[in-house]
């Protein structure tokens, strides 16, 4: 064979090996969606062109691209490192690790696959989010440990060793099973949002939405006259129970969510006040980077009715969640709000908001407000709002996505709390502006 032909074949082999290595690298590097990202922008970053976003949508079974959720794990190669039915680390905040039997402890990183036999451990101020095929998510907060007993296309079985685990489980098919075990209890679910806590010697289960069935996983069988098995306990939305090792557990209603005071969301310091909940003994505050709390970054517990967020957290917009604990130490329903953390206590001014130009030309506007509150939103080319481009009298949100814009220049926006009484004075609002490059 001529020498030139041999060299040509070698070059082709090297090129093919490079393509295989590149594909393998892509398979090992799934992308975890961050707040504000779009398939258009992600495709441009990962695949060198935004025009391939339909491929990303189809490969990852994304339904509505405009509703892309933070924490979603996207793959870009045809061969996935994580088999169908397995789990992957969607997000990590702080120090967290994975322990495998007979193996060394490994630091958790986004995109890492999780399999049966793994034990996940979070340190102080650390949070881990697991993504499962089908859209289910599991959040492991600070000072917690969770063992993966089984995980495949039909079964997810986890064991809470200590701490807490919060699950957002998509509706299960008839042949699918999702269960969390803790001590001698097994909690099976069918499409629900719920918490399991083993803290300070107390085991509890609390259901925010959906339904959970609690059964004992081990019954006394030492004698023939052993007592019959207890009937399962059904926990429905808005209820919880202290799960007893001995004796029946009783479902009870959860405390309502604490309400963040409106003026607190607009203040320029890091102290957040809320209305006390009758019957509450203590409260918990959590902060996350996304509305579903799949990207938590901070939590603290105290007597209320206020919390001060530490200066270590970066300034910017966050989702704030408040819950109340009753006398039985059950954690109540969550109350969520969008808040803004200034650079330091006492800096900034009330009424500030932010706007960011997305990679597809649209603009995301956000303001610190209370979730579920109505806001009147206006957009104009002039600072006096003489001519309105957008006039939404009742927006049930704390942000708007606008555009794309055909004309360049400066745009002005403002949002204020909407009132049922049109003659009432306008509430203090939020405002800002953004610039669109001329074409």
Molecular structure report:
- A hairpin with a 4-residue loop joins strand 8 (127-132) and strand 9.
- Helix 2 packs across helix 3 (53-59).
- The chain has helices spanning 3-27, 39-47, 53-59, 262-265, and strands spanning 31-32, 73-74, 87-93, 96-99, 106-107, 113-114, 119-122, 127-132, 137-140, 145-151, 155-169, 177-182, 185-189, 192-199, 202-209, 211-216, 233-236, 239-242, 252-253, 259-260, 271-275, 282-288, 296-302, 306-308, 316-325, 335-341, 354-357, 363-366, 369-370, 375-380, 388-395, 399-402, 409-417, 429-436.
- It is built from 4 helices and 34 strands.
- With 439 residues, the chain is mainly beta.
- The radius of gyration is 25 Å and the shape is globular.
- The relative contact order is 0.08.
- The longest helix has 25 residues, at 3-27.
- The termini are far apart.
Short overview:
By secondary structure, the chain is mainly beta.
Give a topology summary.
Elements: H1 3-27, E1 31-32, H2 39-47, H3 53-59, E2 73-74, E3 87-93, E4 96-99, E5 106-107, E6 113-114, E7 119-122, E8 127-132, E9 137-140, E10 145-151, E11 155-169, E12 177-182, E13 185-189, E14 192-199, E15 202-209, E16 211-216, E17 233-236, E18 239-242, E19 252-253, E20 259-260, H4 262-265, E21 271-275, E22 282-288, E23 296-302, E24 306-308, E25 316-325, E26 335-341, E27 354-357, E28 363-366, E29 369-370, E30 375-380, E31 388-395, E32 399-402, E33 409-417, E34 429-436
Parallel strand pairs: 11-12
Antiparallel strand pairs: 1-2, 3-6, 3-8, 4-5, 4-7, 7-10, 8-9, 9-11, 10-11, 11-14, 12-13, 13-16, 14-15, 15-18, 16-17, 18-19, 20-21, 21-24, 22-23, 22-25, 25-26, 26-29, 27-28, 28-32, 30-31, 30-33, 33-34
Helix pairs in contact: 2-3
């Amino acid at each position: 064979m001529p020498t030139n032909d041999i060299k040509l074949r070698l070059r082709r082999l090297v090129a093919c090996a490079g393509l295989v290595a590149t594909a393998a690298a892509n398979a090992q590097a799934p992308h975890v969606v961050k707040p504000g990202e779009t398939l258009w922008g992600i495709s441009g970053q990962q695949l060198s062109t935004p025009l391939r976003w339909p491929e990303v949508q189809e490969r990852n079974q994304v339904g509505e691209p405009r509703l892309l959720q933070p924490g979603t794990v996207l793959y870009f190669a045809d061969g996935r490192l994580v088999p169908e039915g397995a789990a992957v680390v969607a997000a990590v905040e702080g120090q967290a690790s994975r322990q495998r039997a007979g193996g060394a402890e490994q630091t958790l990183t986004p995109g890492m696959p999780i399999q049966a036999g793994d034990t996940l451990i979070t340190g102080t101020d650390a949070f881990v989010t697991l993504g499962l095929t089908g859209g289910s998510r599991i959040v492991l907060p600070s000072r917690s440990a969770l063992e993966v007993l089984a995980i495949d296309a039909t079964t997810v079985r986890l064991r809470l060793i200590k701490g807490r685990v919060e699950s957002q489980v998509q509706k299960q098919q008839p042949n699918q099973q999702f269960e969390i075990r803790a001590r001698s209890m097994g909690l099976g679910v069918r499409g629900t949002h719920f918490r399991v806590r083993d803290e300070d010697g107390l085991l509890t289960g609390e259901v925010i939405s959906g339904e959970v069935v609690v059964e004992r996983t081990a019954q006394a069988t030492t004698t023939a006259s052993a007592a019959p098995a207890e009937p399962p306990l059904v926990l429905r939305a808005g209820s919880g129970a202290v799960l007893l090792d001995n004796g029946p557990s009783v479902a009870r209603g959860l405390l309502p969510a604490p309400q963040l005071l409106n003026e607190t969301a607009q203040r320029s310091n890091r102290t957040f006040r809320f209305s006390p909940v009758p019957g509450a003994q203590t409260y918990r505050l959590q902060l996350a980077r996304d509305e579903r709390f799949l990207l938590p970054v901070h939590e603290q517990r105290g007597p209320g009715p206020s919390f001060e967020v530490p200066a270590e957290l970066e300034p910017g917009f966050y989702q704030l969640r408040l819950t109340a604990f009753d006398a039985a130490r059950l954690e109540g329903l969550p109350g969520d709000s969008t808040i803004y953390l200034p650079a330091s206590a006492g800096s900034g001014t009330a009424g500030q908001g932010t706007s960011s130009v997305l990679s597809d030309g649209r603009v995301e506007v956000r303001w610190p407000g209370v979730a579920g509150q109505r806001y009147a939103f206006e957009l104009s080319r002039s600072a006096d709002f003489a001519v309105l481009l957008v006039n939404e009298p009742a927006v049930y949100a704390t942000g708007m996505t606008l555009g794309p814009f055909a004309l360049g220049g400066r745009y002005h926006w403002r949002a204020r709390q909407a009132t049922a009484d049109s003659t009432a004075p306008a509430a203090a609002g939020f405002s800002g502006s953004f610039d669109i490059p001329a074409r």
